[in-house]
Design brief:
498 residues, alpha/beta, Lambda Exonuclease, Chain A, Nucleotidyltransferase, domain 5, 3 domains, seven-stranded mixed beta sheet, binds iron/sulfur cluster
């Protein structure tokens, strides 16, 4: 009889085909960068959990990679006879195998019992966590562990890091004992279903659908869709049409041309019409009118940020968007274009010097153009709240912000945008000679975060650090120069040499 790990049972819960493929064709799986990043965040939080639950380092850590499965299970069984915390203790029983993040001994009378904690890097308890905990409880109890209680510890996003490596308060426990203990029969049924699925001679015939992304992006998606007809103009290019697009896909309809006009809102209809006709929509008069109230000088601003599941800078919260870089172009009344920037890769908290440089760069009058004001606006408000002494100057910049995104959305559409108004799509359409894909190393926000993380890592060599810095500066500068050129087209200022 096959033994199923918890992750295999959870794969079954998402999709039996996924389980079958993970067992029989694991090489077909391609995890996305987002999935990899979430694994990394999970590992990081796991390490901090060990500090929090075992501040005096009395516990033992099981390392399945070093000990192998059999060795890890045997060592866990030995350690369960003692009364110290155990991390990654393994159990195998009832056709399943699971490793517990944290096992804490408790004494009830003269009996030793255990409190189990599953640690997650999310900020709340999700439904799939409940399945996860139910499997943990089932396996541990089937293995004869005196399990008294089970909880899920997740990140408390309202907690602020006080510094000095003190992470008490980062995790918040939710007790799931009653619920987990009541689901034994359900888990047994999953194990039985997993046995049947694994024994199938071929993968089960299951179509792709919304479940392919829920609760995780499935790494077999490319494989499962390899034979699906590729639409020339896919329905999913329609903005805000997700669930409806899936309903069409379920009926084998993938082409934009097959969606009736009366099912679409004006924006979706505009995308459909101009995509199929391969024509550009540009309300030049409307765009110029939108920008007319804002005379020069004008500022064009963009931020780069990073978030950490486990904060590294005092006074910051888990998953907070921490600013580390900005680019600022300034267009004077004379038509002269100047540029300034900020980037701190020292590894120290960049927030205060960032805020000071921003105030120095933005002057005191003239619109501050951004693309998607919600993002930069929120960061400025957060900085203002964090540094009361800079609050007035920061909020004054905030109040001068003008968002180019809604203007682009209302006044411009090129078929190459494929239903998106992200600056990465709009820029090559409006100003074809400016291209992000020609940049060296960093070409989007995700890459910028990764590069920054590498740059601040203590083991990164100075030479590499300098290379990353150059790439980050070039990337962010293009973002604001792109805004300048968009503004020029929208404002009808072809007279300016920019
Ligand atoms: S891509 Fe979708 S259908 Fe294919 S295995 Fe994954 S979840 Fe199942």
């Amino acid at each position: 009889m096959r033994i199923f790990s918890k992750s295999k049972l959870l794969a079954l819960r998402q999709c039996p085909k996924r389980l079958w493929l993970e067992i029989h064709r694991p090489n077909l799986r391609e995890d996305s960068a987002a999935t990899e990043a979430s694994f990394q965040a999970g590992n990081q939080v796991g390490e901090i959990a060990r500090q929090i639950y075992d501040p005096h380092k009395l516990g033992a850590l099981i390392d399945v990679n070093a000990d192998g499965f059999t060795g890890a299970l045997e060592r866990s069984a030995e350690l369960l006879k003692l009364d110290q915390p155990i991390f990654e203790a393994g159990f195998s029983a009832g056709g399943a195998l699971a490793f517990a993040d944290v096992m804490l001994p408790e004494q009830i009378g003269d009996q030793q019992v255990w409190h189990m904690v599953e640690v997650k890097s999310s900020t709340s308890v999700k439904d799939y966590h409940r399945d996860d905990v139910a499997v943990q409880a089932y396996v541990a109890q089937s293995a004869g562990v005196a399990l008294q209680s089970i909880a899920l510890a997740h990140i408390d996003s309202s907690w602020t890091y006080p510094g000095n490596g003190d992470y008490r308060g980062l995790l918040k426990e939710s007790d799931l004992t009653e619920e987990a203990f009541s689901r034994t029969e359900e888990v047994q049924a999953w194990v039985a279903q997993a046995q049947q699925t694994a024994a199938l001679p071929a993968e089960p015939a299951i179509e792709t659908g919304l479940h392919c992304d829920t609760p995780y992006a499935c790494g077999f998606y490319d494989y499962c869709t390899r034979n699906q007809p590729k639409a020339q103009y896919p329905i999913h290019w329609l903005p805000r049409f997700g669930a409806a697009a899936q309903a069409f896909a379920d009926q084998g309809v993938f082409e934009l041309a097959q969606v009736a006009d009366d099912l679409l809102n004006p924006k979706q209809l505009l995308v459909k019409t101009h995509t199929l006709a391969n024509t550009v929509y540009f309300d030049a008069e409307g765009a110029a009118a939108d920008l007319a109230p804002y005379p020069l000088p004008a500022y064009f601003l963009d931020f780069e940020t990073i978030n950490f599941a486990v904060p590294i800078w005092k006074g910051t919260r888990p998953y907070q968007q921490n600013v580390f870089q900005f680019s600022l172009h300034t267009l004077a009344e004379s038509g002269h274009l100047a540029h300034c920037e900020f980037l701190d890769v020292s590894g120290e908290d960049p927030a205060m010097p960032f805020a000071q440089a921003l105030i120095a760069g933005c002057g005191t009058r003239g619109p501050v153009y951004v693309y998607n004001a919600g993002f930069e606006g929120s960061r400025i408000r957060e900085l203002a709240a964090r540094y009361p002494e800079l609050s007035a100057a920061l909020l004054a910049i905030h109040d001068r912000m003008v968002d180019l995104l809604p203007i682009a959305r209302d006044r411009y559409y090129h078929p190459s945008q494929q239903g998106s108004w992200s600056i990465k799509k709009v820029l090559p359409a409006v100003v074809p000679e400016l291209r992000y894909d020609r940049l060296d190393g960093v070409q989007d926000g995700g890459m910028a975060m990764e590069a920054f993380q590498e740059a601040i890592h203590p083991s990164t060599l100075l030479e590499r650090k300098a290379q990353i810095k150059k790439q980050l500066l070039a990337y962010c500068k293009l973002d604001t120069y792109a805004m300048v050129r968009l503004w020029q087209v929208f404002a009808g200022r072809a007279d300016l040499k920019l």
